[in-house]
Fold these 4 entries.
Entry 1:
Amino acid sequence: MTAQPEEPTAPRDPGEDPAAIFDALPPAHREQFRAEYDEALDAAHDLARFKQVQALLRQWRLRAIAYGRPGYEESGTGRSTGQGR
């Protein structure tokens, strides 16, 4: 019997829970997420800007999923747009 190569598992979807997103991010991206999240929360005191928090969580949720894919960081994906910081 030969060993079958392990198929990479899909990254866990943290949903739009800020703590779950933070935990799902690689350590190199956590500080930026926290800074942007805190800024969005401050802006949310103005109800007209409340949706900024929701948009930020959606964006970082997708980043966390992408960053969790095997080989993402090594591939250089997102660096030209500043996403691979």
Note: DSSP finds four helices and no strands in the chain.
Entry 2:
Amino acid sequence: MSEQLEEQVDKSSIVRQLATTINLSKGGGYLDKVTGKVMELKKLAYEKQFPAIYFSDPENIDAERMNNISQLDWSKEFKECEAIISSYESTSKP
């Protein structure tokens, strides 16, 4: 049962689709199937700084963001959606 679940998760995982699975060896390396050499693993790091208020008052940040989104003019986007829906409806009628 768990193997089937793991297979389904692997198939639907975007990370699994983008990444390659390799078997690691002792010492922090892997065997390259093409060259047959043991390759050393490299480090990958990413940092992003957030203002301190994101952590001290996250609810207020979310409320401000939603307020800003709700005040935008969405008429152009709604017209585009209506045009797409109407074009779909006109082509799908028998």
Note: The beta strands are 24-25, 29-31, 38-40.
Entry 3:
Amino acid sequence: MKNFIKYICISCMLLNNIVSMAQGQKLSIRNPIKWQKNYKLLDGKEELPVKKFGSKLVLLDFFTTSCTSCIASFPFMNDLQVKFKDRVQVLMVTPETKAVVAKFFGKNDFVKANKLPIVIEDKWFSESFPHKGVPHVAWIYQDTVVAITGKDMVTMDNIDKVLTKKDLSKWPIKDDFAIDAAMDDNSQEEDSYSSMFGPYKIGYPLKYRIDSTSQKIAYHMTNVDAIPAVLYTIGLERKLPLMKKERIILNVRNRDRFVNVDSIPKSFWSQKNAFCFSSEWPFEMDASQRHRALLKELTNRLNIRVTYEPRDVKVWVIRPSKQKSDALSAGDMEIGNWLTFVEVTNPHLPPLIIEGIPLSTKAVSSYEISDLASLKKAMEANGLTVGETARKIDCLVIDDN
């Protein structure tokens, strides 16, 4: 009887291990990975050449079709695969269904030429590398997890560092589930409010959070940098446009505090320049007054002055042409959403201003846009014109104190 009970216990333990492996266990840096045999792929296949992964650097690139930066990076990731050939395997991973992904890939210019394998309807990889936001990248070299990062860390130089087994201990870790960083530096407390300000905390995700009780309302910012933090605070009080670089005016001595002037990976730059900030205010305080006070406290901590005001900026204005087009009535995407996508994926373009047409108007969006000429071509096909001009638009102006 004792042997029978022992047999049942061992069997249950083995079964639990098998189920756990099938579901995927959370993996951390230096953990080995045991590849599954079967995965559901966009091209209809169900197997990956996992036996060959042991000698390669495998980049698991988690994405969704609604993530504009994920989609915009597809050409670059394909170029990486071509450059490093058999030394690297880029594997795109999404929880979305085949129908959703296939439909999107059929009409989007960034992904039409994709040659990378795509795992769809994923659960196992996401359970092994849990995350809240994409892009999210797991680096696996010789069947061992060596890094978990944001997409900014995926550069040719960093790939070379992994392949040549350089020290990665100072690489930032993307952990979307880390508890908010505790801040004990430069704390201030008054009867009406309290605030804390501290440096970047390694291992914590970038996060904005608002908590409230019956007496206090608290604003928390973890691992943020100055410009987004200021814009977030201003945005509590008013709706902001897409704040492209033309809308940010810096009258400061040290620009590197605010922008990545050396174009190093954003994660490395953030380690030097990002910060943590928390501030509590009385709940009964008027919301607008509280937001203004929060902005003042934040800018005092940063030792800057900020204004949000009209300035002359070069823009491209889009208007209806004299010759109407049927394309606008037979379009596939609202023009406001489409041109926002164009601006996000083309940060080098100036702000786009739409006039004389509702933002909800449908337009034909199956055009690749990268400059003024290609934008004009796409707009003309939709019965619209594009003009380059200087105009006063709302800008964030930052000065040193």
Note: The chain has eleven helices and 16 strands.
Entry 4:
Amino acid sequence: MSRHPRFRISGSPLCPAAQRAGLALALRGRDFASLRSPGKTRLLIRQAPGLVLAIESPVAMLELIEDLHPGQPLHPAEPALRARHRQLIASADAAQQALAAVLTARNLRDLDLAVFALRQRLLGIEAELQALPEGECSNLDIALAPLLWRLAVLDRRHGLHLGDGLPGAARRLALLLARPEARRVLSLAAGRAFLDELAAQGAVVALAVEDWDRCFDGAPGRKVLPLRSNPSPVPAQAAARPTLRPDW
């Protein structure tokens, strides 16, 4: 492979995988082009004239960018800690899927169940983060960032409290967003586009109060399953800790 490959990210710029790859490159000072196109998100690497490598796996994108920048490692050097980071990256992928279920819910029953499942995964990630030593920005932070950023945007715009009681995650997001390179990827414009996309899709979480009747099944005004205001137990001391907020 060329010593100076050129990078493009094709697909939707709002895709979490695209944002991860963009962060991994931007935090290393690498330029990349965004190519909006339908279909799956791909990291395109021009190795030589007429030779382009296309990667679709979000995890493989992070690992390949890591391997192509041996002088700028974002994985821990210590093998056991590196393995724990990779395990948490897999947990972040699962939590991202859980968030997708929240965003695609079309009635209160599905939303309630999806929020509960998401919160369980988030609390598991938080417990693991609390046990990790804090250090410099890593691939784990990059993998978590699109998820945590979405929670922060949703909480700030719609008051969902999805990110309550996650102080370790909040610190990592704040440290990442303190870097201008990260804010160029997870920008105010990207947040607005994300919210506009949810509204256009008719997501329950994006509905105004007067529109909630469409989330009731059966007779008008009958709710299938009550939506808990706090979908999973959060200790009082944890609720008082910093919540996720994008640094805009």
Note: The radius of gyration is 19 Å.
